[in-house]
Amino acid sequence: MATHDELVTQVERFWHTLYVERDLDAIGAMFSEDGVYTDVPVDDGGAHGPRQIAARLRIGFGPIQSFDHAIHRIVVDGDTVITEHAETWHFDDEHEVTLPFVSVQEIHDGKFTLWRDYSNINTLLDDAPPWWIEHIMSQPHFNEA
Predict the structure, then answer these.
(1) Domain that holds residue 81
(2) What is the pLDDT of residue 143?
(3) pTM over the 0.85 mark
């Protein structure tokens, strides 16, 4: 089992890859073949495996101009890492939304096996620009990606 510090470092690298590098394929590659990502408020069965996880993220994150990300705390319990954080979505020059949430991740043998996000999704949806909502709604279901 990885140490506390190794798990914290791995999760911090994960968030950096997601929000700064925005390398969604690299995020997918951090997951085991049976890894699962679930955006709990959406409750759509989640994305399974590296390819689906990257495709799922691409749907929402692809058209976003930039993100700010603030980690408030990281808690480790065994192989489970819990991050309290907030992402600020800069959709374009006119629209910005900050979404506070908690992520629960499990890491086994250096790979993420579980990632669940818990948020009030309406915080994002209520202030997202109409073009982004239309983009999301026009996408084929991520399992087909």
Answers:
(1) 4-144
(2) 46
(3) yes
